[in-house]
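Please, is this right?
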Amino acid sequence: MEDIEIRVARRKRMDGIFAILGLVSTFVGMLTLAALIVDLAIAGSERLTQTFFTSFPSRFPDQAGILSAWVGTTLVMLVTAASAVPLGVAAGVYLEEYAPGNWLTALIEINIANLAGVPSIVYGLMALGLFVYQFRLGQSILSAGLTLALLILPIVIVATRESVRAVPGSMREAAYALGATKWQTVRDHVLPYSTGGILTGVIIALSRAIGETAPLITIGALTFIAFLPGPPLGAEFPFVSFEWLMSPFTVMPIQMFNWTSRPQHAFHLNAAAAGLVLMVMTLIMNGIAIYLRYRFRKRIRW
């Protein structure tokens, strides 16, 4: 009896120690992020004017802006999300619900897990040979979006599989018992209940993609660009244009790298302001995904 009490007390102490370590780790991460945001805000807040958002890069730091950079980042991330999310979710659902349990499926699963840890520069080199030269897409927004889509595709697939796997098997059995087909079960029950986890994986994947620089430099992203891509919407028929997909581009991380590599301190202040804007863009993107996740979970709850 005493041995049991001693074991219970020891495990309670271990639980308490683990809880304290977890709390300390959380605060260290939060304080580090807060210190980074405060440092960027102090250094670059004076540059956050309307002119900074509406001006092109310049060799004069007080006239330089991030117009082409934030527009390029937005368009590249739009292509990335439109390419990676549907394909990744479809692949994850197929591997978890439809794929037969044979050696080929096991080989695909192993390769997907390995691809999630491949350095981003490798994806850039592959995209340079495949998209830029083989498919002749050039150094364009479409090439950049597809490159980042390949980069985050394994993350989306793994997150989708884990979310689908977490749905209780009894839910599937109940649907089958009522005469539902495989696709009806997946569409009406499995996917709605796993959407929250899938969106969590999408948040993580897109947060990684928006800050990537190496693969975009590899495929030819410009460090200085003084024009914008063509508008996606027009006043004449057919009112929708895809010419912007083939336009040259730059993104926020590359613009920041360009400014930090310059010796003038004023350019470093511009880079700090751009970093703060990039973090806000990331938070907005994540906030939209979190809101969608909340809406899906609320709809399922009721």
User: Anything to note?
Assistant: Residues 203 and 286 are 6 Å apart (CA to CA). The chain has two domains: 1-47, 48-301.
